[in-house]
Amino acid sequence: ALAWYAEIAAIPAKVREEMIGHIRFAWWREALEEMDKGKEPRAHPALKTVAPYIKGITFPCESLMRIVDAAEAEFAGQGEIGASSGELSALMLLLSSRRRPGSISEA
Q: Do 56 and 99 form a contact (C-beta atoms < 8 A)?
């Protein structure tokens, strides 16, 4: 799941034009929506890391969407950097602390 977050967080460094950044954020948002509706993840390794969490409803898709929304708002200069960064960090800590669905827990 952290690979997915790394992809979202890297968008500003990968694009030079604002519109291209918005297109990339939209692509990730649409991919999450598709998985939330039960479709298989698109062919991107980072999406496959979050798919088990969405399918198992271990982590709500809405929370992942908020991460994308906050990152896009920061990218566009419309979000409060401190507040958005805090939300991103909190959500990612929560996500990374959850055991992957179907994995064997250690005793």
A: no
Distances (CA, A) of 104 to 69, 81, 90, 96: 33, 38, 25, 16
Helix axes 2-14, 18-36, angle to 10 degrees: 160
* Residues contacting 91, CB < 8 A, separation 6+: 63, 64, 66, 67
pLDDT score, position 106: 40
Burial 59-73 (b: 16+ CB within 10 A, else e): bebebbeebbbbbbb
Packing angle, helices 61-75 and 2-14, rounded to 10: 20
Q: Where are the alpha helices (DSSP H) in 1-107?
A: 2-14, 18-36, 45-55, 61-75, 81-97
Banded model confidence at residue 62, pLDDT cuts 50, 70, 90: confident
